[in-house]
Amino acid sequence: MSEVYAARRTRLRERCNAGGSAAALVTRPANVRYLAGAAPQGAVLLLGRREDLLVCQSPPDDRPYEGSPDEALRVQILPQPPGGDPAVAAADHARAQGADSLAVEEHHLTVARHRALGSVAGRLRLADLGCAVEQLRVVKDEEEISCLRIGAEIADQALGELLESILVGRTERHLALELERRLVDHGADGPAFPTSVATGPNSGRRGHRPTDRRVEEGDFLTVCLGAAYRGYRCEIGRTFVIGTSPADWQIQLYDLVFAAQRAGREALAPGAACREVDRAARQVLDSAGFTESLQPLTGHGVGLEIDEDPQLAPSAMGKLDACVPVTVEPGVHLPGRGGVRIDDTLVVRPEADGGPELLTITTKELLAL
Residue 222: beta bridge partners? Predict the structure, then answer.
């Protein structure tokens, strides 16, 4: 992997040089991990003129920092306070290397930290690196996709085991905690995001936080979870019916959301406009009169963070590339009644390679549990 991280840093360095910056300081944790292979808490990465440097503080209990950074990087570990800010130390190192300008991630820095960099860096001119690293992260290599694929398998397994257990009478909170335990049991670093379990009138809500409401016969049950594996995060969401006889309105609503989700999945292709993928799913629900009940977006990118570019939304700009993993997650929530959400993680692939690759494979048939 050392060559992979080095190649990523080279691409970023070329962007910086083209923009007139001799060095770059990366502070956003996911970006540091992408370029360095690890991101100990508080670590920053300097792309310098003569060497690249990972600067971090030692843990307060003097244990070795977690993670395995690229062995080609030099690592500087600062002592605990008054050891100082790793970002300031890295900027000072860039100045000592003879850099006259330093590109920084202004969207991640606080005003106070930016001022500290400016005061210590002296003659260094600070420039905005923008979202250059995030843009590099959009298209994944096959090693990254493999991590997402394993994470999806773990999430599928945890969800499948839960569905075999007795659900009636258990709380949303209890079920969410059990799912997160199962993720870890099957090899995940942990949950990719807080697990959402929603029952009855809560079902179908995006980002619902589990409560002490208990599962009842006749409920819709919406579950949304994800596994983090080697830092990479996937997502799956399914809706089920509790009991043996779904109501007619539940069947109709489920079939409609399923049709919307299928339309969104089928629209994924290299070169497809992000807003057109959203439109493909959204118009199915619009035409059925659910305009006011729709979520603000149909999907988003995933990777080292659970919500990355690209965004599949009505106002989204840009087009999809091959090897970009995204979610497709339309849903409808009816206040007081509940709703349906169906969520998959897929990788955009050309038609010649079989079209979009589905990573989350738990059945989307409406199951009665």
Answer: 198, 239
| CA angle (227 as vertex; 222, 232 as ends), nearest 5 | 135
Q: Identify which of 5, 3, 9, 14 has the alpha carbon closest to the alpha carbon of residue 26.
A: 9
Instruction: Give per-residue pLDDT as tens, 252-283.
Output: 999 999 999 999 999 999 999 999 999 999 99
Amino acid 264 reads G
pTM of the model: 0.93
SS3 at position 178: helix
Q: Which helix (DSSP H) or strand (DSSP E) does residue 338 occupy? A: strand 338-341
Instruction: Express each pLDDT in 207-251 by its tens digit.
Output: 999 999 999 999 999 999 999 999 999 999 999 999 888 999 999
* Residue pair 326/300 in contact by the 8 Å Cβ criterion: yes
Q: What is the DSSP pairing of strand 299-301 with strand 308-312?
A: antiparallel
Question: Helix (H, G, I), strand (E, B), or coil: what is residue 75?
Answer: strand
Amino acid at 76: Q
Question: What percent of the chain has a predicted confidence (pLDDT) above 90?
Answer: 76
**343 neighbors 235 (Cβ within 8 angstroms):** yes
Compute the distance between CA of residue 69 and CA of residue 286 in angstroms, rounded to an integer: 48
Strand 74-78 and strand 357-358: the pairing is unpaired
Torsion sign (Cα): 104, 37, 307, 314: positive
H or E, element range at 237:
strand 236-241
